[in-house]
Backbone:
DNA sequence: CGCGTAATTATGCAAGCGTATAATTTCTCT
DNA sequence: AGAGAAATTATACGCTTGCATAATTACGCG
């Protein structure tokens, strides 16, 4: 009954990679990119560190894969609800704002990941490209929704004005997202979304109402 | 002409501490807290690493001091312009919004520092206290300015409404601050402040105009 | 059922980390 | 000018890190 060699079970490459990526995201959120050590990740994923090198040629590659995974998840969670709405452009805009300010998009862990990755995103070209693509997509979608909703209301606006509105609404959503994630207990349930809808309404002159969902 | 012992000049404790803190902030902004190594900081401050231990009992203490220094700087830069305005509450609110969206408050390095420190801020009680104090002060000042400006305009609002307005305006400023710092070339000079003033105006119903400064 | 292959573990290495402490230099004071 | 004290440098230690490679185990396939 002394120290025996560790038992293990074989898993598919996809399952192992995903487990390693999820463990990586946990540790990056907790301790930053440099604090997420290969040994720590292996322990969290319940394997030994050597296995990481078997699936990822370096820690750098694992970090990049984890970032990509996270950004895809965030993007999906943000856009899925609005794309399910069949009604007016206004309803789609409302759903978009609401989804951006509701869990799991609003989440302390998402904020921590955003902050932890920022340095690396600005230095690594591949991560920078992923970031800018996701960000531009978000803002373009928002601007398109605002444009459509204004036209729908019979109040079209010139491109310069639409650009400013999109920047402002984007900033508002980002700021509320940040506050909600950083201080989860500072807001009552639904308060964040309500403030978001009211503020976007005030800035655009549109009337965003809740619960305009259609399946 | 071989390796001689390094020449040096004595400096005052305050000067050395400040130099070490500034070097620390540089490296933290570039590489994160864990990436800011004692050796790297010493090199950046043009001293040897042993000197750091002479002024700070640990790296932890140096990091904390650097964070405190940075937060004080940011707070000063944000509040100084508005406190110099003698005119109406509306003018002070305008100056406050403008200062929050102008360099050196809006700065890529400030964003990087904010992100780099976030993890440690959430774990270290002392840094957490510093952060929450600064943040609460910012939001309280903003809410007070909005309240005063609304009363001044003969349009007082109930506390719940004032709270929502402060949260929304705070989020907008945070978001614009983030975008301006993360994408410095995406905005024309003065554009960020203009969007900020217009959006706060739309949300509050007040008319924020530029250039209402009084010395 | 046993054999081969690939998944997984185990071990080791060189570099960098924060910290501790001894050796030396600079400056002030008389 | 010279001595004492403090600032600064130099060196070393133990630990952790990412990465490499050898040793073993699990499992599909004949």
Residues:
């Amino acid at each position: 009954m002394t120290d025996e060699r560790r038992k293990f079970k074989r898993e598919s490459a996809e399952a192992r990679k995903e487990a390693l990526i999820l463990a990586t995201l946990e540790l990056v959120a907790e301790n930053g990119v440099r604090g997420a050590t290969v040994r720590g990740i292996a322990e969290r994923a319940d394997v030994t560190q050597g296995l990481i090198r078997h699936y990822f040629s370096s820690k750098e590659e694992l970090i990049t894969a984890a970032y990509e995974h996270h950004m895809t998840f965030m993007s999906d969670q943000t856009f899925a609800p609005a794309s399910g709405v069949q009604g007016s452009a206004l309803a789609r805009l409302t759903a978009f704002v609401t989804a951006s300010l509701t869990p799991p998009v609003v989440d302390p862990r998402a904020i921590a990941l955003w902050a932890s990755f920022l340095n690396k995103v600005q230095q690594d070209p591949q991560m920078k490209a992923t970031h800018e693509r996701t960000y531009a997509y978000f803002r373009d979608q928002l601007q398109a929704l605002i444009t459509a909703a204004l036209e729908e209301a019979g109040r079209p606006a010139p491109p310069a004005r639409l650009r400013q509105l999109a920047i402002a609404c984007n900033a508002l959503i980002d700021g509320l997202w940040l506050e909600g994630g950083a201080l989860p207990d500072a807001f009552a349930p639904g308060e964040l979304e309500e403030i978001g809808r009211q503020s976007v309404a005030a800035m655009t002159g549109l009337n965003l109402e809740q619960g305009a969902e259609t399946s």
